[in-house]
Amino acid sequence: MGKVLTTVATLLVLLVGAAFVAPLLVDWTRHKALVEAEASRLLGYTVRIDGALDVRLLPSATIRAEGVRIGSEGAGLTVEVLAADLSVAGLTRGEISITDLRLEVPRLEFGLDREGRLLDAFDARPLARVAIERVEITEGSIAVTDPRANRVHTVSGIGLQGAASSLAGPWRIEGALVHEGTRYGLQLQTGRAGAEGTRVRLALEPADPPRVIEIEAEARAIDGRPTLVGQFRWREAGRPEAGEGAPRWRAEASGEARFDRLTLRDMRLSTGTAERTLA
């Protein structure tokens, strides 16, 4: 979701800047072509707003856009409704502080090449000082085209709430998503993004079977390939109705995770009080 939010925030910065130099009472829908052209030039991606556009500074700074598309078909972001409230005090100081950002039905699509590298990389460094007090995503989805497996990896039903002191992090996000028919609860914390990557703590809890997947890792691009390097844990989820005597199990290993592979080392398995280490 980081790429989604940085892309959206870039568009917000452009719209707010335009609002300050335009009259207060402007029919923004009639001037979408100008906004699209300038946003496309600065972003380096084609930007289209197929629906209504409204930007207001009084009595509070708000933006609402419908049918937003950034990028091309199969390689970009679409949002049915984008709405944001911004801090007026921050705007007067030349800062972008988003107090509330709402994305309805966003869909992010991108692809990998035959070596597993991202076909496109978004540079979020200029937006590191943009703060988001609250973000809410409803009915989101992500689709990753992988020609090596001749398939599209899809995550749907994304419903998230979160906040960040800047778009570069740290982030705190929680919510849920659906992958291959299974619904997962999600909790995500990140560090601040740096040249060597981003520290990530992720917990996923599928509804069935009851278990918890925990990852503490560094998110990096190794030779252009998105990779998680760190510790991976699996454990049985708590089942109070089973009583204290119910069996418990846990597995832990270090390793690396990519779209197409999971490499584990020094795996440890335990059930009850017994533990076994696997090389």
Write the topology of this structure.
Blueprint: H1 2-21, H2 32-43, E1 47-49, E2 53-56, E3 61-72, E4 75-86, H3 88-92, E5 97-111, E6 131-146, E7 151-164, E8 171-179, E9 182-190, E10 198-206, E11 211-222, E12 225-236, E13 249-257, E14 262-271, E15 274-278
Parallel strand pairs: 5-6
Antiparallel strand pairs: 1-3, 2-3, 3-4, 4-5, 6-7, 7-8, 8-9, 9-10, 10-11, 11-12, 12-13, 13-14, 14-15
Helix pairs in contact: 1-2
Key attributes of the depicted protein:
279 residues, 15-stranded mixed β-sheet
Summarize the model shown:
By secondary structure, this protein is mainly β. Helices cover 13% and strands 54% of the residues.
Describe this structure in words.
The chain has helices at 2-21, 32-43, 88-92; strands at 47-49, 53-56, 61-72, 75-86, 97-111, 131-146, 151-164, 171-179, 182-190, 198-206, 211-222, 225-236, 249-257, 262-271, 274-278. With 279 residues, it is mainly β. The protein has a 15-stranded mixed sheet that branches. A hairpin with a 7-residue loop joins strand 9 (182-190) and strand 10. The radius of gyration is 21 Å and the shape is globular. The mean pLDDT is 80.
